[in-house]
Amino acid sequence: MDRLGTLAQYLQKVPQVDNKKTVYAQAQRALEDLLDSIHAFFFDYESEKRTLWRLAQTGRVVQQVESFHRALDAITARCGLIVAAPTGIGPSLPRWQSRWRRMRAERLVFLRSYLDDHESVVVSNSRIRRLSDQLEVLTLLKHSVQKFDTLLTTDELKLLEHAYTFAVGFRTNSIHFDTQLNAMCLPEWFVAPYDRTKQRLKWQRAAVIVQNAPEAMNLNECFTLASIWSCLQHSHILKLYGACHVGQQRFFVVAEGTPLTRCSRDDGFPLWRALHEAAKALQYLHERRIGLSSLSCADLILFRSGDCDAIKLAGYNMKLLKSGMELLNVYGSKIGEYEDQDPVLEENTSDVSCDDVDMIYQDQVAQARPIPLGESSQKETAKRYWQAPELASLIAEGPTEESDIYALGMCVIEAFSGGNIWSDYECCHDGIPPKPAALEDTSQWNFVERMCSFNPKDRPRIVEVVASFQAFASDEQKIRTCFSGTKLRKKARLHDLNRTQAPATSVSIACTLSEVHAWCDEASESSAINYQLYERMDDIAAQLEGMDADKAVSHLPVLANLTLRFRDLVQRHVDEKPLLRLAATRHVIEMNAILHGELDVLMSRLALDRLEPSIHSWNSQQASYTEKLWKRLRVTLSTHAHLLNGGLDGNQELALLGTMLAFEVKNRSASYAIRDLELMKAALDKVEEAYQSIMPSDFCTYESRSMSAFPPWFIPPYEVVYYKHDGASQGASSAGHFGRWMNVDVVVKEVLPLEQPGKACPLSSQRGAHCTSSVNEPTEEPSRQFKNEMTVWSALKHPNVLKLLGACHMGQHQFFVCEYAAQGSVDIFLASQPGEERTMCAHRVLHEMALGLHYLHAHNVVHADLRCCNILVDAKGVVKLADFGFSSIKPGNRSGEACQWKAPECLTGEMPTFASNVYSFAMCAIEVVSGVLPFGCELSDAKSKICKGLLPPRPTNCFSDADWNLIKRMCSHDPKERITMSDVVKQL
C-alpha cells in the first residue's frame, strides 16, 4: 500500500506534459484496477477466520502479493520511473523485495508459534474433528505445496508439512490418511475453493461457468463424477476444466455455452444436426460404460463460433452403467406395476450461485427431483430432466443404455416442441407427449416413439440411433445449411478432413468394393464377417443402379461414404500381424455392427426390402460369424507364450500386443463375456512374462510396473483411421495426416525412426533453467522419451495450447493424435484477414499466444521451437501453441532451421529456457503485427545480427513507443534482464 500511495502522489504532482498525458491517464486507471484487485483479494483472505485454513493458503498469498508488486513495477516502468534510484537522483520508488522477505519471515514465525501452541489450535479448529473439514484442510495443504513449490521457501514448505502432520493427527474416524504430505495424491482436476473470485471473467482465459454441485451430492459422489468426467475427451462432451470436492460448496468449472433450450425455437436452427451430435456423445459414453441418470435439452450445450458450431453434452448426471439385463429382468417381473405410470420429469429447484475460479458467469441450475407431469407446465423456467420409467423403481440400481435412449428420445420431443411439451397434457397418450407440430416427418416421429417405448426391449440401440439421426440431419441440411444464428445463410466451408474425392458414382462405389473384396481373404479370421458386409453393400449398389436417377443420386454419397469407411477398416486390419488383428476382434465386430446399422437406415430411406435377398437379414447370420471369430480368439489366447511371441517381429510388437490386451481388459471389459475376459487376462500374463524374458535387465528397472499400467492417454492403433496420402500442415516438426478418432476429425502424426535422434531441451524444465547437457550427448531411449513427453503434454489443458487426444507409444509405428486446427498457422490465418480487421485480429492473436506461453511456463514447460508456423488457429479462431520441440519427434538434422526467432544464447549452443521463449515471443510479435519476418529472409545475416544483440528494424506504423519498449525489454541480450511472460501478459 505504501508503494501505491507513493506512485499515486507522484502521478498527481507530475507536470502534465502533452506527450505524457495519455501514458499517465492509463497508469492512473491501471492503479485503480490494481487497488480493486488488492482489496478484493485481502477481503476474501481475511474472511477466512480459521488460522489453519489461512496457513494452507500460504502459496496463494505469496503468488498474489508478488503478482501485485510486479504489476506495480510494470506501471512504474510505463511512467518512466525506476524502482530505486541508486544515486538518489531522479524520481524513484523504494524496492519492495527486501521488505517483502521480512514480512514473509514474520508471518512464518507467527504461524509456527501458533502450531506449537497445541491447546489454542485445538480450540480454534474444533471443526476439524469432522471428516469433511479434515479432508478439506489436508487437501488445501497438499494443493499449496504442489502448486506453489517453486515460489515457497524451504522454511515455508516445512511449515506446511508440519501443519499437514498436525491435521492428520485429528482422528475423526477410522479412515487412514497418509502421514507424509508428499505421499498424498491430489487429482489433476482439483480447483481450490479460494480460487473462486468475482472479479475476473475467465478460467485460464477461457469463458467458463462455475456450476455448484447439488446439495444432495456428497464428497465421494463429487470426487467420482469429476474423476470420470475429466478423463473424457470427445468433441461433443463438455470440457471439464476442474472441480472442487471439498469445502462447504462443491463445484465444477466447465466451458461456457448456450443450452439447447435457448436455441431450439430459433427459426432455421438445425435441430437434427444438434441431436445427432448429442447421440454421438452418448455413444462415446456407452463405449466407456458410462450412462446418464437423467437428461435434458439443458444438458446439450451449443458452442457458437461462426461456421463451426457444435453441441456438447454436459456430464453432471454421469454414472457408471449397470448391466442392461439386470433391469430388464426386474422390469419383466414388474411390468404390470408400471404400465399406467408416466415418464418421470425431474426439475431443478435449488438455488445455485456461481462465483468462479477465474471467471464468473452466474447461472441457475437446479437439483433434480421427480414431479407429476401436470406441474411442469406451470414452471416454464425450470430445467427439466428426463428419466426412463424403469429407473423410477427403488429396485433400479442405475442407468442403462436403454434408459439413456429413452431420455434422448424425450429430448428430441422437447427440442421440437420448443420446450413447451405439456401445453396440451390431455392429449398425451402411451406415456409420451403428442407429436410436436415442428416434427412433420412421420418416419422420424415413428422412430422417436420407438426410442420412448415403455418396454426397454423395444427401444433401438445407440448404433441405430446415431445412424438414423445422421440421416435425418442430412435431410435437414438440404434446407438449413447454417448451424448458427436465426438467419439462413450458406455456410462457408473450411478445409474438409475427408479425403478429396470425385463425386460419388456407381463406378466409384464399385471400384471401392472391388478393393474390399480383394482384401477380405487376407484376414482369414474375419473374412466371413467382412464378406457379409461386402455382399450387402454390393447388393444395395446394384439396386441403386436400377432405380430412378433422381432418387438414386441423393443416396449415392451415403453409400460411397459407407464403402470408403469399410475399406479403411479392412485395409488397416489386414496390414497388421495376425496376432495384433485378433487383439482388435472386439473393435472389428463393433465397427461391422455400426456399418450394418447404417445400411439398415439407408435401406429404410430407399424403401428397399430387407427380407429379400436374405443377406439383409444379417443379425442371426452375423451372430454365427461373430461366435466363430470369438472362438478363434480364444484358441489363440490359450496357446503357449512362445507361440504368441513367435508370431510377432521382436519386442516392440510384443509390447504392443500386451498393451492392446491390457487396454481391452481395462477399458472395454463390458464388451466381453466373463470367460473371454479371463482368457485375455491369462494371455496378458503370458505376453508380459515373454516380454520380460527377452528384454535387457536395465529395462526392468525402468518398467517396474505391469503392462496393465499403460498411460491414460494410450490409444490402440485400430481405433484411429488416418489417410497417409493426405498431409496436414500442423506445425514444423513433423508431417501429419488427417484422420478420425471416435467420430472426431483429428490430426495424426507418426513418429519416424531417427538415425540420430534430435535434441531439444526436456519438455518439463524446472523454472526454465539453462540445460547443462551438451547438444551432442546421447538422449534417453527414444520410446521411453516419447512416452514421457506424451505424459507431460497430456497434462497440459489450456484453450491456447494444442490438445493431445492420445498416443500409441508401443510398436514399430508410434503416433500421437491431436486436435485439428482448421485455419492453419497463425501467419497464414492473419494473411487471410481483410486489411481493416487484420490489426485488431493481430492484437487478439498476440494476447492469446502470450496466455498459452504463460501457461506452459507456469507448468514448468519450455517451448523449444517457438515461431509462427508452430502457432495454429482452430476453426473458432482460437490460437493454439503447438510443436513444443519434442526431441523424440524432431528431425535429427536441425542445422538448416530458421534462426530469426531464436534467442542469442540458443544460437551459441545453449538449450531453450523461459527467457529464450520470451525473446522468441517478441520475434513472433513483430511478425504477427507487421506481417514481416524479423531480420528478413537471409539466415546468415540474421544470425550475425542476433548474436550481436541487435534488434530487427522497427516496422513502420505498427508499434507505439510503449509497445516497442516492451519488445526491447523482451529482447535484452542478457537473458536475466528479460521480463517474464507473466509481466508480458499483464502489459498486453
From TrEMBL:
SUPFAM superfamilies the UniProt entry points to: Protein kinase-like (PK-like)
Listed InterPro entries: Kinase-like_dom_sf (IPR011009), Prot_kinase_dom (IPR000719), Ser-Thr/Tyr_kinase_cat_dom (IPR001245), Ser/Thr_Kinases-Pseudokinases (IPR051681), Tyr_kinase_AS (IPR008266)
GO MF annotation: an example: protein serine/threonine kinase activity
Coiled-coil intervals: none
Boundaries of every Protein kinase domain copy: 175-473, 722-988
PROSITE patterns noted in UniProt: PROTEIN_KINASE_DOM (PS50011), PROTEIN_KINASE_TYR (PS00109)
Pfam families reported in the protein's UniProt record: PK_Tyr_Ser-Thr
Name the UniProt record assigns to this protein: Protein kinase domain-containing protein
Organism: Hyaloperonospora arabidopsidis (strain Emoy2)
